[in-house]
């Protein structure tokens, strides 16, 4: 992941339930199975022939309605034409179905261990990334809940050129069907933007204006055919356009971790500056200009700097709780094998968060008294936080093939964990990135002293 290069992997889906239930005897999507078992689910469906703003037009329908429409559609080749990427007849593509959250008791697949270090979805299993009290509705709980998706589309359905949400990593597994990928490395991403670096090309097979997009012809694309039962890893910042060459069902995750946190922050900084520039002329008459910038950032990006900071603070606390437990109980846990790789990972996690916090401490939203505070002690007592810690431990177990949860569960579950002493000795709350930097310093110093005394 550190190299940030795409790769195709095989042999990781053989035991997936989805590969048997979702595929018929002819190797095609088992549409009747989806209709029978999941037909009432409400999903977002893209009309691949209709552009709306910078994406394909979306409509909501049930899975059964989507499948009925799919069975009526004529086959289209790539959904392409010379008319701005549109076709005469719609080709529908079910996208971003939050299947895992909706069907908790149906285990369609298991996340491969090499991509399970997923901070984003691990966190979202306990908390929401952003909640606007003025616009929050309970019915949005699933639609905003995670970044684990199922995609389904007929031959000819496609996804326009884009880079993934939060500039996250993504992996996509073909349960059945075949996809064609066109990928562009981050070093060439400027070539698919207009001369003002504002608008991105929608469809690379359109007749692209050389005047509007002067760099497009210089782009060097990486092309890839993804077969059934193959998984493709798409790194951060790689723009890509994807076409279904056959009727296809895929499982897709977006996620970030210690290796690509910097990509997330860089995107937020760019989006924040654009949002701020757009409304700069009302600064003098706005009672809370910075608050408006943060609301616009959350609307455009999916979270604002406060959301990202709270995520970093909670995740730091979870890492420090688990690190403290494992470091102090290393002798008792030794019987299961060395836990040093897990401890090293937790230290690396904290160090990577600290580097991001150092970059954030100069942000305008954290200057002065913003009335913002995260109570670490209260966070530590919250059952949601215990769930986050358990999930972090299970992730470490999967990555390093060590079983340590039984040794950690009692400490994590209690509110008087020894880690709370570290929290209280430092401070009861963090209200700025600088506070978080100091807190992580305290935790890592404490960890070093424990190691030295052993």
From TrEMBL:
Domain JmjC: 121-272
InterPro entries, sorted: Cupin_8 (IPR041667), JmjC_dom (IPR003347), JMJD6_ArgDemeth/LysHydrox (IPR050910)
Gene Ontology terms describing biological process: gibberellin mediated signaling pathway; positive regulation of translational termination
Any Gene Ontology CC annotation: cytoplasm
Xref: Pfam families: Cupin_8
GO molecular-function term, one example from the UniProt record: sequence-specific DNA binding
Family, as annotated: Belongs to the JARID1 histone demethylase family.
Annotated protein name in UniProt: JmjC domain-containing protein
């Amino acid at each position: 992941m550190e190299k940030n290069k795409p790769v195709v992997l095989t042999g990781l889906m053989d035991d997936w339930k989805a590969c048997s239930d979702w595929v018929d005897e002819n190797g095609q999507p088992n549409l009747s199975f989806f209709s029978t078992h999941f037909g009432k689910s409400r999903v977002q469906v893209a009309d691949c022939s209709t552009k709306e703003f910078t994406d394909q037009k979306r409509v909501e329908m049930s899975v059964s309605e989507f499948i009925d429409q799919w069975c009526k559609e004529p086959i289209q080749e790539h959904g392409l034409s010379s008319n701005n990427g549109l076709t005469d007849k719609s080709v529908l593509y079910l996208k971003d179905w939050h299947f895992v959250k909706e069907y908790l008791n149906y285990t369609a697949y298991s996340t491969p261990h090499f991509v399970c270090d997923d901070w984003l979805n691990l966190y979202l299993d306990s908390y929401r990334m952003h909640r606007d009290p003025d616009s929050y509705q309970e019915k949005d709980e699933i639609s905003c809940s995670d970044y684990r998706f199922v995609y389904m589309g007929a031959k000819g359905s496609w996804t326009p050129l884009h880079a993934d949400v939060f500039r996250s990593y993504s992996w996509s597994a073909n349960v059945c069907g075949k996809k064609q990928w066109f990928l562009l490395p981050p070093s060439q991403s400027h070539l698919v933007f207009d001369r003002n670096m504002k608008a991105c090309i929608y469809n690379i097979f359109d007749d692209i204006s050389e005047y509007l997009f002067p760099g497009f012809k210089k782009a060097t694309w990486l092309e890839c055919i993804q077969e059934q039962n193959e998984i493709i890893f798409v790194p951060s910042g790689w723009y890509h356009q994807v076409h279904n060459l056959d009727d296809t069902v895929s499982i897709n995750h977006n996620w970030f971790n210690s290796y690509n946190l910097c990509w997330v922050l860089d995107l937020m900084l760019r989006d924040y500056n654009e949002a701020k520039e757009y409304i700069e002329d009302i600064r003098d008459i706005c009672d809370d200009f910075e608050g408006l910038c943060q609301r616009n950032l959350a609307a455009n990006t999916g979270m604002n700097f406060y959301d990202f900071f709270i995520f970093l603070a909670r995740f730091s606390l979870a890492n420090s709780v688990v690190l403290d437990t494992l470091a102090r109980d290393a002798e008792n846990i030794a019987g299961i094998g060395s836990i040093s790789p897990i401890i090293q990972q937790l230290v690396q996690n904290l160090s990577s968060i600290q580097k991001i916090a150092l970059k954030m401490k100069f942000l305008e939203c954290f200057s002065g008294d913003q009335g913002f505070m995260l109570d670490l002690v209260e966070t530590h007592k919250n059952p949601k936080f215990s769930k986050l810690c358990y999930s972090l431990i299970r992730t470490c177990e999967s990555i390093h093939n060590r079983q340590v949860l039984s040794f950690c569960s009692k400490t994590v579950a209690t509110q008087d964990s020894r880690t709370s002493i570290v929290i209280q000795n430092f401070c009861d709350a963090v209200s700025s990135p600088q506070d978080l930097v100091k807190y992580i310093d305290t935790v890592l110093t404490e960890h070093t002293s424990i190691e030295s005394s052993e």
